Each structure stands twice: as structure tokens, then as C-alpha cells.
Amino acid sequence: MNVVVLGGNGQLGRDIATAFSAQNNVTSLTHDQIEVASIEPVRAVLEGIRPNVVINSAAFHHVEKCEADPVLAFTVNGLGARNVAQVTEALGATLIHVSTDYVFDGLKASPYTEDDNANPLNVYGNSKLSGEHFVRSINPRHFVVRVSAIYGENPCRAKGGLNFVELMLKLAHERPELRVVDDEFVTPTPTVQIAQQLVELSRSSHYGLYHATAEGSCSWYEFAAAIFELTGTKVRLERARPGEFPAKVPRPKYSVLENAALKSKALNVFSDWKSELKNYLARREAQARLVSA
Question: Which domain holds residue 212?
């Protein structure tokens, strides 16, 4: 099977390309190789490859920059998704489109399912939701997959190369005390597990909208505490005071997703978030030993 990964050099895109490479012919494309915001290069590149499956993990996902430049955000995340949907539909290819928990406003205070109404609080969430609508209305062979609080072994370019795990461990070695918010709830999910879930979906014809996160939830404070506990890191961790770190852009306080659709079709591959974190840290330690050997 010919598989194309858009955003192939991203934190998630690299793991997607690796996961699909095990049994498929994978072409991983970066922003420099294909500009999704313009339909002509999308058509020219994909018609040359003739893929069976396209995974679109390309996005403008820096929340503050999206707020400052909504035209660019909607051009990439909305019209870019439309362009990919139109070309894949014409080619008869399946499209797996990666979306976000930020399509919700966080007011529900219990895990969001695929049946809940979206109500984004910021430009990024709105632009991603517009992309979802384009994909779902244009290419019937689609999987729209929402993810949350992702972290992985590949650098996250939008966050200076550090995911939350690496940032916490770095700061713990630089400071005697860390303060982390305890009133925002997410489901930390490793990119390698998301990639495995997308492989599983690609083998199915159960097209539609899916939530794809690890099981359970935690606050950012609880996530940090688990990181330090599992790594044996000694640092004084405190809960941030309300309003201590005011957000520059409105974000949902609660964006926990429930994988209801995956479970209803017996497709869910995720385990609980803390077990996934343990596995990530074990891979991280093994990699460090390899480098130092």
C-alpha cells in the first residue's frame, strides 16, 4: 500500500511514518516539499505518488501565533485540509486527518465524546474545526482523529523542541522549585501510540470521526508529579496559584477526550496515560544508554 504522510518531519508525523513503514511503502513529506495551503502543489505531488492512504498531520498549531494571524491559521488548517480532501477524493484515496481537543470549550467537565458539540475558544481551535468540516464533507473515505496533550521522542518545533516531559525534567535540573497549574485537565498521549492507532484505523473501513487519546486524565500538575515520581527526580513541586500564569489566549480548562467511537468498533489500542508515560520514559532511558555506549 502506498502511504503519504504530510507534516512528516513533525513530532507526530515522524512516528506516523515509522509506524506505517513496517508494512507499507511510505512517502514522508515536509512543508518544503508540499504546501497544503495551495491546491496545485497538493494535486501535482499526490497525483505523482498515487497514494492509497494520506495522513495529514501538517498544521499551523502554535496557539498564540494562530491568534495573531487568523488568516494564516485558516489558510493552513482550514483551506489546507480542504485542498488535501479534494485531491484525495479525486484519487480515490483514504484520508486520515489529525485534529485537536481544542475544538471544545472545556465547560462539560466530563470526557468529551464524538457526539458532543464543538465550541472552540480560540482561532487555532476554530481553524482546526473548519478543517474537520471540509474533510468530512468532501472525502467520504475519511478518518478525522482528534488528539490531546501529545508528547513524543521527536522534537516539537512549535514549542522550541521540548515536549512537556522534557521541559519538566530540564527545569527540575535548573531550579529548586517548580509551580504548575492544577486547574487544567488533559489526557497526556504519546505520539508513538497515536501512530499505532492510525495504522489500526487504516486497516478498517469504519470511516468517520474519532477521539484517540490514552485512557484517564490528569491536571498538568499531576502530569508533572508523575514524571518526577517515575524518573526519581528530586524537586519541590507546588501547585500554581489561581491566575499565576495567565494565558495569552483562551484555552479549554478541561479537554479530556473519550475514545467512544474506537471502543464501539473494537479498534481502541490505548492503555492508561500513566502506563503510556512509563513506556515513554523507558524508551527514553534505553535511547540514552545507546547514545552513551
Answer: 2-159+188-217+251-272
pLDDT band at 238 (very low <50, low <70, confident <90, very high): very high
**pLDDT tens figures, 207-231:** 999 999 999 999 999 999 999 999 9
DSSP classification of residue 78: I
In a domain, 20, yes or no: yes
> What is the rounded distance in angstroms from the CA atom of residue 230 to the CA atom of residue 142?
38
Residue 165, domain member (yes or no): no
pLDDT in tens, 79-138: 999 999 999 999 999 999 999 999 999 999 899 999 999 999 999 999 999 999 999 999
Classify residue 107 by burial, with Cβ atoms within 10 Å: 0-12, 13-18, 19+. exposed
- Mean pLDDT to the nearest integer, 147-168: 81
User: Is residue 182 in a domain?
Assistant: no
- Residue 94: φ, ψ to 5°: -80, 140
Pairing of strands 142-147, 94-100: parallel
Greatest Cα pair distance, the chain, in angstroms, is 57
Sign of the four-CA dihedral 113, 118, 123, 129: positive
Q: Would you say residue 146 lies in a domain?
A: yes
CATH number of the domain that residue 266 is part of: 3.40.50.720
Prediction pTM value: 0.92
Task: Give yes or no: 112 in active site.
Answer: no
According to DSSP H, which parts of the chain are helical?
11-21, 39-49, 63-68, 70-74, 80-91, 123-138, 164-174, 191-202, 220-231, 260-264, 273-292
| Per annotation, catalytic residue among 102, 112, 124, 221 | 124
The count of structural domains within the chain is 1
